[in-house]
Design brief:
heterodimer, A: 479 residues, mainly alpha, 19 helices, elongated, B: 233 residues, alpha/beta, six-stranded mixed sheet, 8 helices, 37% helix, 27% strand
């Protein structure tokens, strides 16, 4: 069977190359892919340089802020930056919405800044031209134009009868054509691989993703499967269509449904079912709870009074002034922890909504391979929601540790009631390491995407089964 | 080689072929005559297993074509009324492709030689089929049958629309195949060609083989009279 497959594939490739339209469309895709990668590279380079420069400046500002009270330093604060990764230039994912830097200070969890989505018109919601967008949306369109007439044209021109009269089965013909289209499209994937290799060669690497090579290979595998699914679908539809026009209409309807209608409808539906609070509402709720204490918790004033009693008892003294440490520092840390507790409570509710929205999208991906690939592509490129949450958690932990160290220093070195009497210096600032970030490993991330992986597996099995078994009874003539 | 036993094909209430019995042996050229809709092409399509019989059996080399699709197709070559090839490929490339499907490997020289023997002008061998006339495409079909070393030839009105010269050349090629022992079943409207080339002739009407005889048993004039008589009845 293999020699026959190769024989058919060779013929298909030869004809496709002689039909200039397909070559022309293929070149357009390659050019778009090249433009998208180049635009991604320019944006990556600019952002990386800006981040590197700003990060260095902010670090120097922190280290050379001069002598001051640790709590003033905690409010002086610093910045944390999300490193731009080499794969984010391939798939921008949620980067446009999640922001790349955040101001860190005591008591407050500030919003992330520099979100490109804020600087663009609402058209960004239709997708910026990224290499991932080209592979996810435009390449399937090329596949449709390449393969919609794979069988109908043979039937219409009469060559199908001649082929079948040679003893060829629909099964062998179908797989020969699939092999041909796969080989032709692999040129585009090889171009992608070479581009990533070239970027590596140009020194575009990132320490933030420890397993870039694994991710690139997984991306290649992912897109190979995705493109195979569209090829198999196009060939199967062509086998079962009486005319080329019908096959084209069916496939274009599928394409519009998979890549435009269903994702947009799903986004609207999930937003309606699991409505997110606005940033203003979210912050207002946190502030209200910080003032009054969340339901079921002890108010901060009571907690501080209890803590004071505890310390007085522990050190066997009558007043906070007699304590061997500055109780203001301890109290400040207690206030910080109370604020953190309130923040975690609200953030937990917000994230639950995010997860529910994501869960809905994951379930929908079982019915739509485009959604599965979109989610997995973002995950492997380090631009998905889970990587973003992972980064936010690392940043918040860093902020909490910074404030804890400031409060500890205040408690250990300053005197009660003499706020301006103590100033910490460079030694303390040096104890705070610069913030650095590494994404989770791909294997860890993919654990969040079981349904998407199952979707691709199920679609592959379904289409292979259809192509293998549903063609057995088909004849070149109806009757 | 070719045998039909009570071969029947119905489409709902319409009977396209009704209880056909015939056999074509090695070196025979069996010509099926009849008006449009008489069941000639249905017979060919049943032998090709392009459609399933409602009743009866079509067999090649004693193998039921519905049960031994692959094996029987290895033995046959088929030339339809209008042989369609890939217009973006040359005659040689088309021949190479279709030969390769059957697992037969030939050198380029052998294929070129087959095309020349089939009467294709040498300067057309490397030209794209889009520039070929119908007769040229039929010649590629004959070359394919020779290359595949087919022992059965199924022809569905192969000379329809050919000019007399091309039609004559085609008949010559059939006679060459006959000498090689190829069993040929040909559906045709061309009484003259049937008498001239065929060894056996069958007349079909409304899905029934109403007459069959050896072509040497009748003169062309008698054949014409018999044919018209059946058509008018």
């Amino acid at each position: 069977m293999l020699p026959a497959l190769i024989h058919i594939a060779k013929k298909e490739i030869r004809i496709a190359l002689r039909e200039r339209l397909i070559v022309f469309l293929g070149l357009i895709i390659v050019v778009l892919l090249g433009v998208a990668l180049y635009a991604g590279y320019v944006s990556y380079k600019q952002q990386k340089e800006t981040i590197a420069q700003t990060r260095s400046e902010k670090r120097q500002e922190w280290l050379h802020q001069g002598d001051k009270h640790p709590h003033i330093a905690a409010h002086y604060g610093t910045f944390a930056f999300k490193p731009k990764t080499v794969l984010s230039l391939f798939d921008f994912g949620l980067d446009a919405y999640t922001g790349t830097s955040v101001y860190l200070e005591a008591h407050y969890q500030h919003e992330f800044m520099f979100r490109p989505a804020q600087d663009h018109s609402s058209m960004i919601r239709f997708g910026e031209l990224s290499a991932a967008l080209v592979l996810q949306i435009l390449l399937p369109l090329l596949i449709i134009f390449l393969a919609f007439a794979s069988f109908t044209r043979e039937r219409e021109s009469g060559t199908l009868k001649l082929l079948i009269s040679q003893g060829m089965s629909f099964h062998t013909l179908a797989w020969g054509k699939i092999l041909a289209y796969s080989l032709m499209l692999s040129v585009i994937l090889v171009f992608f691989l070479l581009s990533i290799g070239l970027l590596y060669g140009m020194g575009v690497t990132s320490e933030a993703i420890p397993d870039t090579a694994v991710r690139v290979l997984l991306l290649l595998l992912l897109y190979s499967i995705y493109l195979f699914l569209f090829i198999a679908l196009a060939v199967w539809v062509s086998i079962h269509s009486s005319k080329s026009r019908n096959a084209l209409l069916t496939l274009l309807t599928c394409w519009i449904f998979f890549t435009i209608l269903m994702p947009k409808a799903l986004a609207n539906l999930s937003e309606n079912i699991y409505t997110l609070p606005s940033m203003r509402e979210f912050k207002a709720q946190i502030e209200a709870d910080k003032r009054h204490g969340p339901e079921g918790t002890t108010p901060l004033s009571v907690q501080k009074a209890n803590l004071e009693k505890e310390y007085l008892k522990k050190y066997k003294v009558d007043s906070v002034q007699q304590l061997p440490l500055n109780f203001e520092g301890v109290s400040m840390q207690a206030g910080e922890e109370f604020g953190n507790q309130v923040y975690d409570h609200h953030l937990g509710r917000l994230r639950k909504l995010f997860h529910q929205q994501n869960r809905m999208s994951s379930i929908a991906s079982l019915f739509n391979p485009y959604l599965a690939v979109r989610h997995l592509s973002m995950a492997l490129s380090g631009t998905d929601m889970y990587t973003s949450i992972h980064f936010e958690e690392k940043v918040e932990n860093y902020r909490r540790e910074l404030i804890r160290k400031m409060n500890k220093d205040m408690a250990e070195n300053s005197e009660y009631g003499k706020f301006y009497g103590y100033k910490a210096g460079n030694d303390l600032w040096q104890q705070i390491d610069d913030f650095s970030y590494r994404t989770p490993m791909a294997r860890e991330l993919l654990g969040h995407y079981h349904l998407e992986l199952i979707s691709l597996l199920l679609w592959s099995v379904l289409l292979i089964t259809l192509l293998t078994y549903a063609n057995r009874k088909i004849k070149p003539l109806h009757g | 080689m070719l045998r039909a036993d009570n071969l029947t094909k119905k489409y709902g209430d319409f009977t396209a072929l009704n209880g056909l019995d015939l056999s074509v042996n090695e070196g025979d050229i069996f010509c099926l005559l009849g008006a449009n809709g008489a069941g000639k092409s249905t017979t060919i399509n049943l032998f090709l297993n392009f459609i399933e019989p409602t009743d009866g059996q079509a067999s090649i080399n004693a193998m039921d074509v519905t049960l031994h699709d692959r094996e029987t197709k290895q033995l046959l070559s088929y030339i339809p009324e209008n042989l369609m090839l890939y217009p973006h490929l040359t005659g040689l490339e088309n021949l190479d492709f279709f030969c390769g499907l059957g697992g037969k490997s030939h050198t380029q020289d052998q294929l070129e030689s087959l095309l020349r023997e089939s009467g294709l002008q040498a300067d057309f061998i490397h030209r794209r089929v889009s520039s070929y006339s119908k007769g040229m495409r039929q010649k590629v079909g004959i070359a394919l049958a020779c290359a595949r070393e087919a022992s059965v030839l199924l022809l569905d009105e192969p000379t329809s629309g050919l000019d007399p010269k091309a039609s004559n050349e085609f008949s010559e090629l059939l006679l060459t195949m006959k000498k090689r022992g190829v069993a040929t079943l040909m559906a045709t409207h061309d009484l003259f060609r049937a008498k001239d080339t065929g060894t056996h002739i069958g007349i079909m009407k409304e899905g029934v083989l109403v007459e069959q005889f050896a072509s040497e048993e009748v003169s062309f004039r008698d054949l014409e009279k018999l044919y018209l008589q059946h058509m008018h009845n």
